[in-house]
Structures are given as C-alpha cells and as structure tokens.
Fold FMN-dependent NADPH-azoreductase.
Amino acid sequence: MITVLFGGSRPEGNSAELAKIVLKDLDYNWIDLTKYHFDPVRDVRHNGEVITDYTDDYKQIIDQVLKSDTVLFVSPVYWYSVSASMKAFIDHWSETLRDKNYKDFKEKMAQIEFRLILVGGDCPKIKARPCMHQMEYSLEFLGAALKDYLIGNANAPGDILKDTYAVNIAEKWNAELKSKEEKLQKTK
C-alpha cells in the first residue's frame, strides 16, 4: 500500500501535481496533513513519563503509515523546510518512540520505502537540500532510510510541468512503483 503524506497548502498546487505524476494508475491513500490537528509535542525523555495517549489526529495517521509498503512525503519548500503540518507530524515521532503501544515502531518504520517530493521556486535544487537532509537524518534515526528524493522547480500554478527533469524522474518513479506493486501482488 502506498501512503502519501501531503503537506501543501494548495491541494492542486505544484507539489501535488508532481506527486500525481508519480502516482498515475496506482492505488494510494492520500492524507492531506493540513486537514488534521497536531498538538504540540510532549518531550518526556528525561522525566520518566511514558506516552499513553494522543488527543489529536496523530495516532490515526501514524497507524496508516505503519501499514504501508511505501510512503511519499510531499511538500512545498516553506522557508527552507517542509511545511509546518508535515513537521508537526514528524515531531510526534519523538512521542511514538516513548509509547509502550508502539514498541516495534522503529522496526516497522525500517521496513517501509520512503520517498520525498519537494517543490520550491527559489533555487530549490540547492536551497531544498537541507530539507532533504532533515528528512534523511530523521528516518535514519529510526533505522529507516530515504530511498530517493525529487526536488522540483516551480512557483506559479502549473509551473512544475515546465521542469522536464522533475517530470521525467516522476515518471521513472511511477514505473518503479508499478513494478514493485506487481511483485507484491505476485507474492500474495
């Protein structure tokens, strides 16, 4: 199962458009993180507390992520990082690491294929790299890996289609994911 964690403020914006090229003719679960509420993270690492509850929407999303074979993080580049909604979701991983109900969190995350799609309009091939590394290091901390990333250059609506390099890579990913899906179907 493919899960898309979308963090853009425009549901039909350039980052969404690039992701949909990747997802063409595939089954996927699209989660628009901007439609969910995330409470501030509770850092209990040093006071002996254990996380046992979530009063926001995080749990329902992380449960979907943990059932996935592939997860696409999709975000415009906002101030040289992923969107606030995506960052808020990722920050909650700190709680999950302390949650006794997710003792196998790291092991499950390590089994998922993660990919990242970023789109920006201010020299994104250079300025979005710290954002890519942020995601890469966050996943590595969990024993997972960022399989690949795609940085598109676009600003105004529809501009992403002018970035032929990004579109070509998106089409390549589409073929890879279709092949992976076919192999998974044969093993079931």
